[in-house]
Design goal:
heterodimer, A: about 180 residues, mainly alpha, about 60% helix, about 5% strand, flat, B: about 800 residues, 4 domains, two-stranded antiparallel sheet, 2 strands, about 0% strand, disordered C terminus
Chain lengths: ~180, ~800
C-alpha cells in the first residue's frame, strides 16, 4: 500500500474527497425529483471515504474520524424510524410523508422540502456507515492490522461468549428424592 | 369506572404493573423490599373480598377493556364464584407466602427485589388466568404463570439442579400449554366465540362438530394435565422443588398446579356430558393419585414427599370432576380449600425445618419438638389434616370423598370400582406418610448433627403455617361457618355445596375412615420396623430421567446431523444452491415446454444495433473472465462487464439504475480487491494446481449453462408476454400527485414502499453487526476461548497472509 501514498496521489484524493462528497450531497438532495437518492449518495460517499483511507492510511483516518462508522449507521436507522413513526403522534398512518413549498427565502429563493428527505438521509447514513465499517475492517486485515480493536471487540461481542460446539453434554437431573440407601 | 371494574383493576392490574417497580425498588431497599411487595397481595385480597361480598346478588359479571379489538380479543374478565374462589386463594395465599418469604430470605438476601417482583408477577398472572373471560386471554396468562414459575424455580440458578428443574417445568408446562392454545382456537372456530361467558350460557354444537369438539376437549385437558402434573407429566413437580421453599409453597402446592383443576372446573359445564370425559379423567387422574401417594411414601427428601403427595391430591381433584354428575359436583371447594390449608402450611414448615436443621432428609431428622413447639403443633395439625383425623378439615374432606366415591361406585361400574380402590389405597398410604412426616421430624431422639447445627427460626417465619393450621383446625371443628361463603361462591352447572357438619352418625364412611387410619398407622409401623430400607423409587418410575435423556439425545442428534451436512468451505454450498434453483425453475420450464414453445421464440425484428453491440461487448468481457488466469485480471474483466451493463441501462433510459449500478460495481470491485490482497501472490496469479478435477469442471460448466439457459428463457417469456397492467404504470402516474416527487424510483423507495426500505436498512444494520461478531469469532480454538471472553489479542484476522 505504501506505493500508493505518493504526494500527488494524496493531494489529488483530498481534492477528490471533497468533490465526491459534494456530488453525493447533490445526489441526495435532488433525489426525490431527479436521478439520485440516499442509497446512491451513500455509496458515493463511502467510495470517497475508502479512497481517502487509501491515501492517508487507515490509522490516520481513524484519528480524524474519531467515531465508529456503525454509530453513523445506527443514527441513520434511528432517523428513518423516527421519520416513519412521527406521523403516528398526529394520528396519521406510519411512514406518511409531508412536504411544504417555501417561497421568498433569503439566498435560496424557492425551496421545496419534505419529510421524505429526512427518511432518505437516514438511508444515506446507514449505507455510508456500513460500507465504511466493512471496508475498513477488510482493509485493516490486508494491512496486517487487527480487524477490530479491543474496544470494538467488547462492543460487538456477545456478553457471554463460549464455543458453539464444545459444550459439555447436559446430564440428567439429580432428583431430590434420589435415595442414598444406607444412610439411616 | 364502576365498583366492579375498579376492584378488578386493583386486584389484577396493580400487581402486574407493580412487579417491575418492585424489581427496581429492590436495588435501593435490599431485603426490605418484601414489605413493599406484601402490599400488592393485600390490596388484591381486599379488592377480591369486596367483589365476593356482592357475588350473591349478581352471579356473573363481565368487565372489559379493549386490547386487540380487530382480533375480537379484549381484556375481558369474568367475575363469578369460581374465579373469585380461586382468586381469593391466590391472593390470600400470596399474602401469607410473601410474609413468610420476607423472613425466610432473611436480612442479607441477595436479589430480594428480583424474587419478590417475580412472585408478584406470578400472582398477577394467576389472577389473570382465573378471571380471564376469553380462552385466548386465559392462554396468555396461563403461559405467563409458566414463565414466572420458570424464573422462580431457577431463582438459585447457580445450582445445576435448579436450572434443570426450571427447564423441565418450562418445557412440560409450556408445551402442554400450546396444546391448550390449539384447543382454545378449535373451540373458538367451532362455536364462533372464545368468550367464556358466551360459551357457558350457550350449548356447544355437538351434533355438527362432535369430533372436532372432542379433539378440542382432549387438547384442553392435555394443557390441564401438564400444568397439574398428571400422568405422564407428573415428574416435573418434584424436580421443581429446587426452588426456594416459599415458591414451592405458593406455586407448586397451593396455586399454580391447581390451574389444571381450575381449567377442568371452568370447562366442566361444557364437556361433562362428552363421551370420553369420565373414562379419560377418571383413569389418568386416579392412576396419578395412587402413583403419587406411593412415590411420596418411597421418598425421603421432605420436599419430595410433599411434592408427590401434591401430585396425588391433584389427581384426586381432577378425577373428582371426571366422575361428577351433569349438574355439578358437591364438595370441590372443600377439597381444594383443605389441600391449600395443609399443603401450603406443610411446605412452609418443611422449609423452616430445613432452614433450622440444615437437613432435608427425613431419615436424619428427629426430636425437634422441644426446640420448636409452635411449629411442632402446627405440623401436628397439618399432618392430621393430611391424614384426615377428625376435628380437621381433612376429616370432612375425606368423609365427603368416601361418600362420593361410594356414590360413583353405583354410577360408573368398572371405573367406579377402580376409583374406589385408588381412593382407599391412597388414603391408607397418605395416613402412613403423614404420621411419618410428623413423628420422624419432631419425635424421637435428636441426632447430634442437628444439635450442633440448630439455630432457631424467627417467629415471623412460623406465623403463616400456624395460621393455616389454625384455619384447618377451626373450620374442621366448626364446619358450619363454611356453608354460607361456599354457597355464595357456587357456580351453576359446576358445583352445589352442601351443608357440612362434623358428625354424620355411625355411617359406612366413618367405619371405612377408621379402618383407613388404622391401616395407615400399621403401614407406618411396618416402615419403622424395617427402617424404611425398602424405600427406593424404581427406575421405571423415574420419568424425569427418561425426559432428560430424551432431551440430551435430541441435542446430540442435531449435532450429528450438522456434522454430516455441513462443510467448512462456503464454496461447497454454492453448487447445491444453484443446482436447486436451476433444477426447480428450469425443470418447470422444460416440463411445460410444449405450451411455452411459442413464447420462447425471440422477436428478431426488435433487435436494436447499439444494444446488440453492448450485449456483445458484455459477452466478450465475460469470455475474458473465463480465459484469463490471474485473479486481478478476471476481476477487472468482470468489472468491465458490470460497467457495460450500466451503459445498457442508460440505453433503456434508466439513469437511476445506471447510477446505482456504477456505484455498486465500484464498491464491489473495491471490496473484492481488498479481499484478494489478503491472499498470497502465488494464489492471485492463478495456480494450475488449484484447478478442480475435470469431472467437477464439467459439472460446473453444465451448471453455468443451465443458469444461463434458464435466465434467457425467462427473459424471453417475460418480454414476449408482458403483464397487461404492469404495476410500474400506476406508480409512474401517481408519483407526482401522491408522493410529490418526479423521480418515481426514489418515490417508490422512500414513499410507496417506504416500509420495505425501512426493513431493508434494518436488516442491513443487523447483518453487519452479525458480520462484526463473526469477524471476532473467526477460527478461535477452545483453548483461546478459555482464556477469557475476548480471547487472545489478534483474534479475528489472526492468520496473516504469507509473502
Amino acid at each position: 500500500m505504501s506505493g500508493l501514498r505518493s504526494y500527488i496521489f494524496k493531494a489529488a484524493v483530498r481534492l477528490l474527497f471533497f468533490l465526491v462528497n459534494v456530488f453525493a450531497l447533490y445526489l441526495l438532495l435532488r433525489g426525490h425529483n431527479l436521478p439520485g437518492g440516499g442509497f446512491i449518495a451513500g455509496l458515493a460517499s463511502a467510495i470517497a471515504l475508502v479512497l481517502l483511507s487509501l491515501a492517508i492510511g487507515l490509522e490516520e483516518l481513524h484519528r480524524v474520524m474519531r467515531f465508529d462508522p456503525m454509530r453513523m449507521a445506527a443514527a441513520g436507522l434511528a432517523m428513518a424510524a423516527v421519520t416513519g413513526a412521527a406521523p403516528l403522534l398526529f394520528g396519521r398512518p406510519f411512514l406518511e410523508h409531508f412536504d411544504a413549498h417555501l417561497t421568498g427565502l433569503p439566498l435560496l429563493g424557492e425551496l421545496h422540502v419534505g419529510t421524505a428527505l429526512a427518511f432518505d438521509i437516514g438511508v444515506f447514513l446507514v449505507v455510508v456507515g456500513i460500507a465504511c465499517k466493512i471496508m475498513f475492517a477488510l482493509g485493516k486485515s490486508t494491512q496486517r492490522l487487527r480487524a477490530l480493536v479491543a474496544e470494538e471487540e467488547r462492543r460487538y461481542s456477545a456478553p457471554v461468549e463460549q464455543p458453539i460446539e464444545e459444550e459439555p453434554p447436559i446430564r440428567a437431573a439429580t432428583n431430590p428424592s434420589t435415595p442414598s440407601p444406607h444412610v439411616s | 369506572m364502576d365498583a366492579t371494574e375498579l376492584c378488578v383493576a386493583l386486584a389484577l392490574g396493580l400487581p402486574l404493573l407493580g412487579s417491575p417497580l418492585i424489581a427496581l425498588a429492590g436495588r435501593r431497599l435490599g431485603s426490605r423490599v418484601g414489605w413493599l411487595a406484601l402490599a400488592f397481595p393485600l390490596i388484591s385480597t381486599g379488592a377480591l373480598l369486596t367483589l365476593a361480598a356482592g357475588v350473591g346478588r349478581m352471579p356473573r359479571r363481565v368487565v372489559e377493556w379493549p386490547w386487540i379489538p380487530t382480533l375480537g380479543l379484549n381484556l375481558s374478565f369474568l367475575v363469578d364464584g369460581l374465579s373469585l374462589f380461586f382468586g381469593l386463594i391466590v391472593s390470600a395465599m400470596g399474602c401469607l407466602v410473601v410474609f413468610h418469604a420476607i423472613f425466610y430470605l432473611g436480612r442479607d438476601a441477595k436479589h430480594a427485589g428480583r424474587f419478590h417482583a417475580t412472585m408478584v408477577l406470578f400472582m398477577a398472572a394467576m389472577l389473570g388466568t382465573v378471571f380471564a373471560n376469553h380462552l385466548l386471554l386465559l392462554f396468555v396468562f396461563w403461559e405467563l404463570t409458566g414463565i414466572a414459575s420458570f424464573l422462580l424455580i431457577g431463582f438459585l440458578h447457580e445450582q445445576k439442579e435448579a436450572r434443570v428443574g426450571a427447564r423441565q417445568a418450562l418445557l412440560v408446562t409450556g408445551s402442554t400449554g400450546l396444546a391448550l392454545l390449539v384447543g382454545a382456537v378449535l373451540v373458538q372456530q367451532v362455536s364462533g366465540t372464545g368468550r367464556l361467558d358466551a360459551l357457558l350460557s350457550a350449548q356447544l354444537p355437538w351434533e355438527q362438530h362432535g369430533s372436532l369438539l372432542t379433539a378440542a376437549m382432549l387438547l384442553l385437558l392435555l394443557g390441564a394435565f401438564g400444568k397439574s402434573a398428571q400422568l405422564p407429566f407428573h415428574f416435573w413437580l418434584p424436580n421443581a422443588m429446587t426452588a426456594p421453599t416459599p415458591v414451592s409453597a405458593y406455586l407448586h402446592s397451593a396455586t399454580m398446579v391447581k390451574l389444571g383443576v381450575f381449567l377442568v372446573a371452568r370447562i366442566y359445564p361444557l364437556f361433562v356430558e362428552a363421551e370420553p370425559w369420565a373414562p379419560l379423567l377418571g383413569t389418568i387422574a386416579f392412576t396419578t393419585m395412587i402413583l403419587g401417594a406411593v412415590l411420596a411414601l418411597l421418598s425421603h427428601d421432605l420436599k419430595a414427599i410433599l411434592a408427590y403427595s401434591t401430585v396425588s391430591q391433584l389427581g384426586y381433584l381432577i378425577g373428582y370432576y371426571g366422575l361428577g354428575p351433569a349438574d355439578g359436583v358437591e364438595c370441590d371447594y372443600l377439597h381444594i380449600l383443605n389441600h391449600v390449608f395443609y399443603k401450603g402450611g406443610l411446605f412452609m414448615i418443611v422449609g423452616i425445618v430445613a432452614h433450622a436443621a440444615g437437613i432435608r432428609d427425613i431419615r436424619q431428622l428427629g426430636g425437634l419438638f422441644g426446640r420448636m413447639p409452635l411449629l411442632g403443633v402446627a405440623t401436628l395439625v397439618a399432618a392430621a389434616t393430611m391424614a384426615g383425623i377428625p376435628g380437621t378439615t381433612g376429616f370432612l374432606s375425606k368423609e365427603m370423598m368416601l361418600k362420593e366415591i361410594f356414590g360413583a361406585l353405583r354410577d360408573h361400574d368398572a371405573l367406579g370400582l377402580y376409583a374406589t380402590a385408588c381412593v382407599a389405597l391412597t388414603s391408607v398410604v397418605k395416613v402412613a406418610f403423614s404420621v411419618r412426616l410428623f413423628a420422624n421430624i419432631f419425635l424421637g431422639p435428636m441426632p447430634s448433627r442437628i444439635q450442633r447445627h440448630f439455630h432457631a427460626p424467627s417467629i415471623g417465619m412460623q406465623l403463616p403455617p400456624a395460621i393455616l393450621a389454625g384455619c384447618a383446625l377451626g373450620l374442621g371443628l366448626f364446619p358450619g361457618v363454611l356453608d354460607a361463603p361456599l354457597r355464595a361462591l357456587a357456580v351453576e352447572g359446576v358445583n352445589r355445596p352442601q351443608h357440612l357438619s362434623l358428625w354424620h352418625g355411625f355411617t359406612l364412611e366413618l367405619a371405612v375412615s377408621s379402618l383407613v387410619v388404622a391401616l395407615g398407622f400399621g403401614l407406618y409401623w411396618l416402615g419403622e420396623r424395617t427402617r424404611w430400607r425398602w424405600h427406593i423409587i424404581p427406575r421405571a418410575l423415574r420419568f424425569d430421567l427418561a425426559f432428560e435423556a430424551g432431551l440430551e439425545a435430541f441435542s446430540g442428534f442435531t449435532v450429528r446431523v450438522t456434522r454430516v451436512l455441513r462443510s467448512d468451505r462456503p464454496v461447497d454450498y454454492l453448487p447445491i444452491l444453484i443446482a436447486f434453483a436451476v433444477g426447480l425453475v428450469g425443470g418447470t420450464l422444460l416440463w411445460n415446454l410444449p405450451r411455452l414453445a411459442g413464447l420462447l421464440m425471440p422477436d428478431w425484428t426488435a433487435v436494436h444495433p447499439l444494444r446488440t453491440m453492448v450485449a456483445a461487448l458484455i459477452a466478450l468481457a465475460l469470455v475474458g473472465v473465463l480465459v484469463l488466469r490471474s485473479w486481478t485480471a478476471q476481476l477487472l474483466s468482470l468489472g468491465v462487464a458490470g460497467f457495460l451493463t450500466c451503459f445498457y441501462f442508460v440505453l433503456y433510459r434508466a439513469p437511476d439504475l445506471a447510477l446505482t449500478q456504477i456505484l455498486v460495481e465500484t464498491v464491489t470491485l473495491l471490496l473484492v480487491l481488498l479481499l484478494l490482497a489478503r491472499f498470497p501472490r502465488s494464489a492471485q496469479a492463478g495456480e494450475e494446481a488449484r484447478r478442480p478435477a475435470p469431472l467437477r469442471r464439467l459439472f460446473h460448466a453444465l451448471l453455468a449453462l443451465g443458469v444461463g439457459g434458464t435466465v434467457t428463457a425467462l427473459v424471453l417469456m417475460v418480454t414476449a408476454d408482458p403483464h397487461p397492467e404492469p404495476i410500474g404504470r400506476g406508480l409512474l402516474e401517481q408519483t407526482i400527485p401522491l408522493a410529490k416527487g418526479s423521480n418515481a424510483v426514489n418515490t417508490i423507495l422512500v414513499d410507496f414502499r417506504g416500509f420495505d426500505t425501512l426493513g431493508e436498512i434494518t436488516v442491513l444494520v443487523i447483518a453487519s453487526l452479525g458480520c462484526l461478531g463473526l469477524l471476532m469469532r473467526y477460527k478461535r480454538t477452545p483453548e483461546e476461548y478459555r482464556q477469557g471472553p475476548l480471547g487472545p489479542p489478534g483474534a479475528g484476522f489472526a492468520n496473516e497472509p504469507e509473502e
